[in-house]
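On to our target:
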Amino acid sequence: MGGAGVFLLLLLAEVGAGVAWRPPKGKCPLSCSCSKDSALCEGSPDLPESFSPSLLSLSLVRTEVTQLKAGSFLRVPSLHLLLFTFNSFSVIEDDAFAGLSHLQYLFIEDNEIGSISKNALRGLRSLTHLSLANNHLETLPRFLFRGLETLTHVDLRGNPFQCDCRVLWLLQWMPSVNASVGTGACAGPTVLAHVQLRHLDPKTFKCRAIELSWFQTVAESALGVEPFSYQGEPHIVLAQPFAGRCLILSWDYGLQRFRLEEELSAPSVVSCKPLVLGLRLFVLAARLWGGSQLWARPRPGLRLAPTQALAPKRLLRPNDAELLWLDGQPCFVVADASKAGSTTLLCRDGPGFYPRQSLHAWHRDTDAEALELDGRPHLLLASASQRPVLFHWSGGRFERRTDIPEAEDVYATRHFQASGDVFLCLTRYIGDSLVMRWDGSMFRLLQQLPSRGAHVFQPLLIARDQLAILGSDFAFSQVLRLEPDKGLLEPLQELGPPALVAPRAFAHITTAGRRFLFAACFKGPTQIYQLHELDLSA
């Protein structure tokens, strides 16, 4: 019976004091032996009930009861001690011990209990000693001990605890109470088998997860999706080449979904890049044919209107557009994929944006990425003809700094920051997409991830989680999360057909207290997912 059992026998000796007295007829069930204040029942087919209401101690041994239901002991409200041992019941329901406000000792040992409800111990405000030792409990529900402020001794030994996220709350609870707690060892997972629970570090548990669920579909395919905030409200603009428009969406608080706010005519558009300057809103529409345009809204309440044709002799086949700030002024860089065109830096001058510099001529650039390294603006260009090239801002223009080794056939690049480091996500259509980290002079290879028709490898910072999504035209897109202790991206979830087909860009916004992920798809409509944060320790 263990230490608690020895303690119990001594306690029973005190309570019973060897008195051979039996209560009046009908006050001691046939399967029980009773003294003045105590009863010991063995082999009973159910829970005996016909006790004296003044009973102080009750022991139940080898009963055939299968579960303890709510209010099982309402007829013995004076109990100070209750013991179960070698019984066959496996479940303890909520409020099983309701009415036992004077109970101080509860021993549930050497039974077959595999499940205990979170409110099973509710109302035991006088409880000082609790033992659940030697049962079949793999976990305990969070808040099981809530309201048990008088506990001084807890014995959980001899249970096959699974030391995963479900025990995290227990590890956090133990040092917060004055009670002595015996916990025993882990039965699993394998790597923690036989490790004492008291030796586990709660900080090593990763018990938060993000789950994406479908929320809404936006008709027509898209190549790009960009979030922006205007007048304090989040917006999204989609580049829809086949529909020939830049589509601006905002949140409808009445319908609780995203709605069309405005659309800009932009045939063959590949990128719609927003810029907010106070009350003014600009959208750069980079188009394959017909010339790229700048649209502007001078103040709220007006519609966007085209105001400028952008570098018609330089931008022959734009493939990407990015916004960056140089010397305190907003600029756009447009990557041009034609052999005769050139990637062009357009900076604000008066009411419009005009060419400031041509970059990387004849290299058929497919992507531009603006980033900051060592406190200075940098620009990374990916092209079909060579490895990505890194430029730095110096003397009012971009100068070539270096290229990126081991990065041939890179279609696009995106960067993110974590723990003071700068990382790159480099997209390869086939082969391995790459994760690299800046070491102060060069980007060094950190991780390789298989690509199966990838056009996008998009990092996203969502709340406390650094995610990255590696798209696929032929298989499921992979949602990954950066594990800070490893410094690597680990799989989190898959997104795929039939909803998500050939993704080209991802973006997230927060509105109305909810987080959303937009996925622009080339061979299907844009999909909107809602992000849910899960607590795996619950």
